[in-house]
Fold Suppressor of forked protein (Suf).
Amino acid sequence: MEETLAEQEDRNLNSSSSSSSSDDDDEAAEDLRIKTLEKSVAENPFDYDTNVQYIQSLRKFGRLKQLRQARESMNERFPLSSEMWQEWIKDEVSLCTSSEAFTEVEKLYERAVQEYLTLGIMYVKLALDGI
């Protein structure tokens, strides 16, 4: 089962505060990969695969603010796949802490339905209705 952003944030917060050189190396590699992908997207914003890789990297490392921005930017240029919509909605649901946040998730769902109506997205809607 894939980890949600909220679970990633919890894991990151609960990790020990002492850093080893291996942890530092991993973080440096993570930063370099994200910066490289960010630069590639900026230079060629219509490269679909690079946009997807950038979003996947941001999601993997829990970079929420950048992730939201990257998803919005990609969606301005391309229709998102049903899987990308499902991940986005799932991530936002996992971070919901208020009725206002839930309203934003509903708006996101409505955008997804307008763009890409599938059984998978309908399943997410059913799950959201159960919250």
Q: What stands out?
A: The two ends are 20 Å apart (CA to CA). Helices lie at 5-14, 21-43, 48-60, 64-77, 82-95, 99-115, 119-129.
